[in-house]
Task: structure prediction
Amino acid sequence: MEPFDDARMELNRRAFFRKSGASLGALALASTLNPGLINAASRAQGTTSDAWTGVVKPLHLPQRIKRVIHLYMAGGPSHLETLDYKPKLAEMHGNPMPESITKGQPIAQLQNQKLNCFAPQHAFQHYGKSGQHLSEIFPRLGEMADDLCIVRSMVTEAINHDPAHTFMNTGTSISGRPSMGSWLLYGLGSQSEDLPGFVVLISTGAFGQSQPISARQWHSGFIPSRFQGVEFRSKGDAVMYVNRPKGISLARQRDVVNAVNSFNRSRHHIVDDPEALTRISQYEMAFRMQSSVPGLMDIGGEPQSVLDLYGTKGADGSFAANCLLARRLAERGVRFIQLYHRDWDHHGDLKSHVKGTAAEVDQACAALIKDLKQRGLFEDTLLIWGGEFGRTPMAQGSGRDHHMKGFSIWLAGGGIKGGTSYGQTDEFGYHSVENIMSVHDLHATILHLFGIDHTQLTYKFQGRDFRLTDVSGQVINGILA
Amino acid sequence: MGFSCALASSPERPLQASVSPLSTKGPEILFNRDIRPIFSEHCYACHGPDKNKRKAGLRLDQEEGAFGKLESGGFAIVRGDPGASKLLQLTKTLNEDDRMPPAKSGKRLTQAQVTLLGNWVAQGAPWQSHWAYLPAERPHPKPFPSAAIPSNPIDGFILSRLARERVKPNAEADPVTLVRRLAFDLTGLRPSPQVVAEFSADHSVAAYGRLVDRLLASPRYGERMALHWLDLVRYGDTEGYHGDQHRNIYLFRDYVIRAFNENKPFDRFTLEQLAGDLLPEAALEHKVASGYNRLLMTTQEGGSQPKEYLAKYSADRVRNVSAVWLGSTLGCAECHDHKYDPFSAKDFYSMAAFFADVKETAVGSQESFLIPTPVEKEKWDELERQKTILQKQIDTQTSELDASLVNWQLISTDWIILKPAVMTSKQGAQLRLLEDGSILATGTNAYKETYTITVQTRLQGITGFRLEVMPEPSLPKSGPGRGDDGNLLLAEFELAVAGKTVEWLEASASHSQDKQPSANLIDKKLDTAWGILEQVGQTNEVVFETKEDIGSTAETTLTFNLHQDQNAHMNLGRFRLAATIEQRPVAKAVPKEILPILAAGQAEQSQKQREDLAKYFRTQSPILEPVRTNMAAVQKKIDELKGKIVKTLISESTKPRVMRILPRGNWLDESGPEALPDVPSFLARLETGGKPATRMDLAKWLISPENPLVARVFVNRIWNLFFGQGLVKSLADFGSQGAAPSHPELLDWLACEFRDSGWNLKSLIKQMVLSTTYRQSSEETTRLRQIDPYNMLLGRQARFRFDAETLRDNALAISGLLTERIGGPSVKPYQPAGYWALLNFPKREYEPDKNENQYRRGVYTYWARTFPHPSLLAFDAPSREECTAERIRSNTPQQALVLLNDPIYMEAARVFAERILLEAAPQPESRIQFAFDQALSRRATSSEVALLKSIAQRHQRQYEDDPTAAAELLQIGERKAAHWMNKAELAAWTSVARVILNLHETITRN
Result:
């Protein structure tokens, strides 16, 4: 079998099918190269919209969710002050961590320093009917505790921000691989006709260092760039280049787009170039985005009660505003919505900073769950809250260092067993010891909820069938409803 | 088996082979063509090169293994005996549990594949080694099917194949298409209308040949070829990880452009990049070239573990060198033996070991190498000479200094402790006065803080103040600061008397930590500070000499403001203030190591102590003040000069790090054996006469005539540039999972031709573009489309969208904005505001270039790896974090948004419109024809004219009614609009120009 890349195939299948009389043999050839093509081809014949609806046809499994909202707490929230309470640390505060636990383990900024236990800096409470155990710094989220499935046994493979983000998003810390949103778009396409299917929103808090985040985190890597995430911004153009330049009215822009499309159509008639036809549909989509994107970002039309629910005054780039935008994106069929909030890197002054950062997200997270519920979107949306890693049980001055052997996240929404928790770390909160969940497991489970077998969603690159879960990953049934 | 030439090893694949596998009887089955792909895809994961995953003792990628005895007894394959071949039994069996490949692998053979395997065994199971690892030997050119065609050997291979498949190749493209194709392919820019006109008039073979020569000689050729090479070697202007800091490396990019323009032989080009620094005659040029080894991503992220990153860097280099030169995925053997190709994990670490001598910083900023011009070098040498002379004076103890030192030791300063009247803190720290007059801070330890200490004093003629910072057991690490590490960072020491700020002469400290000198205390900047990190837990002092005496007969109020503004909670813990009324100059704070010498008294000092004291004294003595001033001035000149000298990263060889085979790639596990530099063991051996192999040996091995991969891989990529796809489709994988060559003999012929020509790239390219195959039209006939949809047979030329940079260059060229200048620091095109907002350490503002650098070619664009330029990114420009052998060519709405709305395309359209109005005859028809001629090298059709004319007229009316809109439009871009033109008319024709720049035809290579 020829290892064609799909980008070229996509081009060629248009070459195949733009005339309605594509032969059965040709179709068979296409399907041996890529099973998804038959569907893609028949769609391409039937509609002018050229929308990508994915290579996973039919779905491998029943589909539980239609979209993901990933609340990405960048910087690495301390599990010990948020979701994983360890009284032993309070008891041992100031005393050395047992060497049996830390020996031979990778260490980030605490290299060559004393490793002393550091007590939890905030008390925990039991919330809801389920009695979920959460830190007091999440009072509003506590009200939604019965919807949350808390996973306390996450592990990752990178201890510094940059590679750890890359690992969380792409399943490897080597650059150049597709991010999970890109995989999903490639697998399933998007339900949105006039917005990108993978949208990224970023907010920055006020408590601590703002770690950089690379555009690599939402890049499509070696799969075509049509699957890459598009950053929506609160300042300047909401999507880069989406606003018309000054002096260009909507009508004049329309004139230009119409003329371009008309020329491209006649060009296609002369030289029979399928890419010219695709370009026409992309110009139409671009033109629609010029109104759909500002329409989406304009939350002024939301009733005051909704703004109050989220705790935002308007589109100010805050996490709260982004949560409201996430709901609006979910309503519009966007497949993968990723909200970065990037101030969780609390090396010092953890007590006040983790509280401050938690306060920046607490109400909005709770509001998002409520709002999705009241609109009937909660059942087919997966919410994921978590960072790229956790933080050490050991003190780093008045804070905690990076930690990859045990940390916590929560999930909620479609297919998720709410009001439960899964997995445990040891009594120090150092190692995940029970029902360990790796990043690949998380990815496998997300794909599973979408109806995709993670081992079957592959893309051939440099001779190898790559997948989001690399060579591992297991669906974690224990968190599924 | 006849492996003497590659013809036998990898014959052409029949066109229909991929449609329906070969029928049961009929043509000969060939292992490489028909069987190996089945094995690779379905079997090698468990029966391939990875010895740790190998099952049943069966290895199907090598002949011995395939025909050897199984662990269970019996044989997988028995030549000519399908019945005895276990492999066939297990692929055919209906028993799901036994069937191969197993169900859990998710792979399954088709019935046709099973039959094919059976027939192969029946035919005697003839074996072949993998085509790419066999030596390339020059095949005989093919005879031409028709004598009418000029004799380019390339055409022989292509046409004979087409004839066999009974496919008629396309006719030659029309002259305009051809001249445009050639100009874009060779220089990345459109031909000028004049060149188009000339070639249209005379498109004879001779004229075409002259055109090729002219374009290959253009400096634009090097820029065009460099784009591709820079993708391969992952050139970027930033480090790539985390803070993605700037790096100095553009000289390497310029070297690449120059190398292509000078047609540097590819073997030399290879050698200079991998080992230029090791050449006996290594000149600056070669050192710059050796910057190749430094192009990888590096990190400065705090808390990164050096060993982990050194392992990452090693792997990065192995991935790149094997992808670029070997077209192999050796990087896959980091954790285990390769699954499909015969690379072992040992091969991976042996390859990494070649680079273990490259000097680099594991975590932190990389040291750049200065590349002075001859004039700069001369200046620098002169300054260094002056410095040596001055230093000698400073180092020489004279009798005059001796005498002065005796007196100096007799001076002592009386310090009077100041008693605070009021102590306040801005952020709420508690300040408490201790018995010894020192002040202790407790309670809130805010991010930043200012202490205000008010003192009433009757002292008159105060010449100096002293600030002591003192340890205290209750402070972290005993202080004197409140930082977690016991340190403090004091930004400013400010004193006001009667509402007036006191001016300082000098601030001297008994100790200052690295990069935090006491001068920072009086520089009136809150973002610089003084600290004592290395001497936490000890007392230190700063002495401040005032410019004028302070204090009169009446009581004076002194208001001290101690600003701590570092956002770091590193506020003062315990400190004390004192004043002196000694005569000037006030004795400076003396470093702690000098104090015991002074305390010993002149009579008791040892010889060593006397020398140390004298040395210190020479740094303070007024006698040497003029020398020190001169020295400072010379040093400043040197620093300034060094700041101006161009810097770049180069390879410097140092003692090689020990390279170990890391079990499962785990850098924490050092139990693996040491790996010495060596090439993959299944390829030709490296002979070094017993000496440890170096990067130079690696380079020489790559370019040796015996290396089967390098020439094939490279000519295939060049082919891709001129035909839209490679003869081997998988440009970066020549392994068993890669594609087989569509025209193996042609590939080998090109490889041999290239190698035997002395690796002459221009000659290779010329051969390609002179071919009839290249000159065909790109039109797809219905028949061609049906039988060869992927254009495997090359019965037509290819049509594809320009690369991101070419697309932009073209718009600039059409408008006349393009600046044609080679080399120099990377340039910054307009970029949406805030795109870099997520960068940190440090935060950066993107400052677009304001001069003609705005209009440079895309190859010079500043390449920020974590945030590549969004306008280029939209058109699939890679981030250059890893090797990119082939750019994807997508077609997305973002691309439309860029072409419609990016200010550079608006500006290009407007400047193009100015040209249209200025250079064309005034009738709209003439203007439109002029524009078409410029942008598309063709006449506009009457309907095209009509449509554009209507837009021009309608928009002109609109802009006349709305002059503000016209004015706003014309203001876009750095280039000022022609003020004397009618604004509404210019704006309207900008619309016409925008349409043309957005056309699919404008951005497509045909």
Q: What stands out?
A: Chain B touches chain A through 116 residues (CB under 8 Å). Residues 901-1005 of chain B form one domain. Residues 1-10, 16-25 of chain B have pLDDT under 50 and may be disordered.
